[in-house]
Amino acid sequence: MPEITHTAIGWTRIGAWPIGFRPLHHRIRVGAGESAFQSLAQGILSFELHRLAGLRVIAAPQAAVGGTVTVGFGIGNLRLNAPCEVVWIDELSGTPARHDDGVVRAGFAYATLPGHPESGEESFVAEMDSEGVVFFDLRAYSRHGGWLYRAGAPVARSCQELVTRRYLAAAHRLAGGSHGPKRPSS
User: Is the residue at 162 inside a domain?
Assistant: First the structure.
């Protein structure tokens, strides 16, 4: 199995960003109640969030630590494939347990493998607070994976921003909300 392209594995879980990587963090309210949380969590864990964001996904039906995921961005022969490995997961199992902070969480993170245009990690998490408000939390850190992507940095950054907006809108749809905000909040 190919090795992850960086050594800061699992840092999105604690919200830390390694030096030399560009951080990204969006936490948006997407709904309220157990049903909204369950729909969003299942959509994340089954990669439906990615599909609704317009990405092609090659993966097992559910995220699992050690599992590989290849997401494809683009059309036909102009599709850029991005291989990753799931590095941590908060799973749904019956009634999710509340964490010490009173928040219920479900989601996962994957880290980049060789062939990915970036080097880094990205996490996708559904959260429900003690009041029943449901949030989508997206965290990532990355740097360009090679000289070609560094040379095309403005295009690569624009693609990342586009996919991020699509993830945020997809989270709203999964939680039963609208298409989401026009501008993502940080």
Answer: yes
Long-range residue pairs from 126-130, CB within 8 A, at least 24 positions apart, any chain: 126/37, 126/40, 126/41, 126/44, 126/171, 126/175, 127/27, 127/37, 127/103, 128/34, 128/36, 128/37, 128/103, 128/104, 129/102, 129/103, 130/98, 130/102, 130/103
| Residue in this structure with the two tokens 């039963």, named with its chain if needed | 176
Point out which residues pair with 89 in neighbouring strands.
Answer: 108
Give me the domain span that covers residue 168. 27-174
Residue 61 domain flag: yes
Give the pLDDT confidence of 38-95 residue by residue, as tens digits: 999 999 999 999 999 999 999 999 999 999 999 988 777 777 889 999 999 987 654 5
Q: Do residues 181 and 28 make contact, with C-beta atoms less than 8 angstroms apart? A: yes
Confidence tier at 183 by pLDDT (50, 70, 90): very low
CATH code of the domain in which 124 resides: 3.30.530
Q: How many domains does the chain have?
A: 1
Q: Give domain status of residue 13, yes or no.
A: no
Residue 126 lies in a domain: yes
182-185 own/partner pairs: CB under 8 Å, 24+ apart: 184/26, 184/28, 185/26, 185/27, 185/28
